[in-house]
């Protein structure tokens, strides 16, 4: 009997995945128009909905929308940002549903690399099925510059965190979500940086929310350490190529393009614009074909110890402000992108600032798999913080 039930569930979920894929392929043919906005778009309040459209291929038992909403860039100017909002079916409980704002790992820095543009946008929302089953509203920003054409926000803590927090505001503004003011943050890799920055800035930027906790998997918390660790290999060349155009635009009022690009070799300077237009998940082969020959010859020195990069990376590293809510950190010990020692160093910083940290090191887990591997422990931790139980700190 149990075997039959398991088989039936497997068939149902498999059929749902196939249906989502088929629906996504149909929607992809018309998606482009959704992301095109008029040049004279009026400004709006952060989180205010500009446009929304239901996604036919939502996960089983849920309703989902693609959304475009107002947010703020590094300078505080109004920018449109796209993303996805998913809500469990059925009436919301008394007091509304808690929100989990998801911050995705690196997919690229060009508009075409937005996760919401994927045929199945839920595939890269790690833990989404478990979160929906637990009754949470899940939001997933694309970040500024992805989906909607505009300046990239890649590894820029302030605009990324604005986009994450404003996605939660968008969930409350969208009719039918039942979203409350209770908020939790969840991010992986680049998204870990975004979620941590959002936790540091939530009280000032989005004071209407009751932030209950922030969870991260292999977070890009210390950008100086990340760059030093990775610049000698393929991942470091890729990360730097995506970051350089974003930092050129963001810091144009402080440093000239020549000052920022001085770190590059002539070959690195020539290749960067082309790499920055490629998407990590769908154009990996093309990206690696450009980046591979540049290993060891992309930069002239370590950006983490060379100005103005040392300062810019430090400003966009987490930990410059304390986090006053519980923090969940998961790290795979087989991670070769975000090194375990770098995450351990960040956890020690959190502990020194008086933050309650639940730190989980998972043996044999790589960077790409850490968020999914952490979901069981994450769900237990979320259940505690969402019921005002402060989890035991591993500090």
Secondary structure elements and pairings:
Elements (H helix, E strand, L loop, with lengths): L1 H33 L14 E6 L7 E11 L5 E11 L8 E7 L24 H6 L3 E5 L15 H17 L5 E10 L1 H16 L4 E8 L5 H8 L3 H17 L6 H5 L4 H11 L7 H8 L17 H7 L11 E6 L7 H13 L4 E6 L7 H16 L10
Helix pairs in contact: 3-4, 5-6, 6-8
Structure description:
The chain has 395 residues and is an alpha/beta fold. The protein folds into two domains: 284 residues, Rossmann fold, CATH 3.40.50; 93 residues, no CATH class. The protein is built from twelve helices and nine strands. It has a nine-stranded mixed β-sheet with strand order 1-2-3-5-4-6-7-8-9, sandwiched between helices. Strand 2 and strand 3 form a beta hairpin. Helix 6 crosses helix 8. The protein is globular, with a radius of gyration of 20 Å.
